[in-house]
Amino acid sequence: MQKRRKPEPIQLNPIPDGNTLNGTGASETNLESLQKKLEELELDEQQRKRLEAFLTQKQKVGELKDDDFEKICELGAGNGGVVFKVSHRPSGLIMARKLIHLEIKPAIRNQIIRELQVLHECNSPYIVGFYGAFYSDGEISICMEHMDGGSLDQSLKKAGKIPEQILGKVSIAVIKGLSYLREKHKIMHRDVKPSNILVNSRGEIKLCDFGVSGQLIDSMANSFVGTRSYMSPERLQGTHYSVQSDIWSMGLSLVEMAIGRFPIPPPDSRELEKIFGFPMEGETASSESPKPRPPGRPGSSYGPDSRPPMAIFELLDYIVNEPPPKLPAIFSSEFQDFVNKCLIKNPAERADLKQLMVHPFIKQSEAEEVDFAGWLCSTIGLSQPLTPTHTTTI
Predict the structure, then answer these.
(1) Does the active-site annotation cover 191?
(2) How many CA atoms lie within 13 Å of 107's alpha carbon, on the beta-carbon side?
(3) Among the listed ranges 44-53, 278-287, 362-371, which one has the minimum average pLDDT value?
(4) Sheet strands side by side (includes 81-88)
(5) Count of C-beta atoms within a 10 Å radius of residue 108
(6) pLDDT digits (tens, 9 = 90+) for 357-387
(7) Res. 282 pLDDT band, cuts 50 70 90
(8) Inter-axis angle of helices 333-342 and 164-185, to 10 degrees?
């Protein structure tokens, strides 16, 4: 039998005419046009310097090849792939490498690689940096900036629940990230949830895993079951959906991070007392058997969750047909109202990104000095860098 020849890796970086923003192909003209684009983003001095530093590093990367990576450790798994912390030997850079195994035809994988090209153009302080993508040995590799604080779902597991002031900074970053994707690239995220909001010890908060490749989304459709719990009612019903759907997902994520557990079905007064340590108003505590918890979830951070697991169709039915979750009264009225506006079931009545950006909760959060880096590092046991972001100005 003839030995099967190992396929050549398919690349999307760099290309000879200098159209990519990394590798040896980047030209002076390209850098000049990039600087003009950065000027349009209204960045502060620190954000501009950090983006420029990343893009300068990216130029050293050159062609990405499987043999050039050394695996350091696994960072997580989800969305049909596994993410590893890796060292890229030729450049000396530490990266996050997502490996997605797909049994697909060559024409489809080529299309996915082409569609991922857009990620080279996504340069924002609120979007995880992209080094390149390639195909090798049945796997698509997406190489990204390594965020040493991991994702907010990991922080949530350590913290139990996340303080309102911290969530204010998270809300600003998510809105600005979604606005950037929509305004500059006409992209919807499609998968906003705590595990797709990454953070680092410099106090940066960035979105990852957004839906830039329609073909990749289609090819991975069967692995998206767990993500459906964050989908908006209109998306679950199969009707037309827009960036308003991302806003629902953000609102749901904020409630989850604030109370320490997925908010559907909502906690009753007894569970709220257990979470916050004193009596609170909530749904009337039932003497009957506890409400089921969403499928595939370990339950709350406050001891073993005795609720039986909820079937996926029950959860989706609840999202579509029952009232949306709310924040308990322990939180500020501004935060409660902000979340309520994100979780209006009719997308036409739900607040849009521009309305949310001028909401009192966001204005108040912008004005507050919050040591996000300090909170993160103490929560997950990270050392702060020598030049930490003591005051997170988003």
Answers:
(1) yes
(2) 0
(3) 278-287
(4) 10-11, 130-136, 139-145, 93-101, 81-88, 69-78
(5) 14
(6) 999 999 999 999 999 999 999 999 998 775 4
(7) low
(8) 40
- With beta carbons less than 8 A apart as the criterion, state whether 311 and 294 touch: no
The mean pLDDT value for 201-214 works out to 89
Query: CA–CA separation, 320 vs 324, rounded Å?
Result: 9
Tokens of residue 110, six digits: 């080529």
pLDDT digits (tens, 9 = 90+) for 104-134: 888 988 898 888 988 999 999 999 999 999 9
Per the residue annotation, which of 148, 191, 209, 371 is the catalytic one?
191
Distances (CA, A) of 95 to 5, 91, 118: 29, 11, 19
Contact 277, 161 (CB under 8 A): no
Residue 98 labelled as part of a binding site: yes
The CATH number of 152-380 is 1.10.510.10
Domain range annotation of the chain:
10-32+41-145, 152-380
* Domain 10-32+41-145, CATH: 3.30.200.20
Q: Which two tokens stand for residue 278?
A: 């004193």
Residue 262: which of 224, 215, 222, 309 has the closest Cα? 309
- Give the span between the Cα atoms of 171 and 335, in whole angstroms: 10
H or E element in which residue 238 lies: none
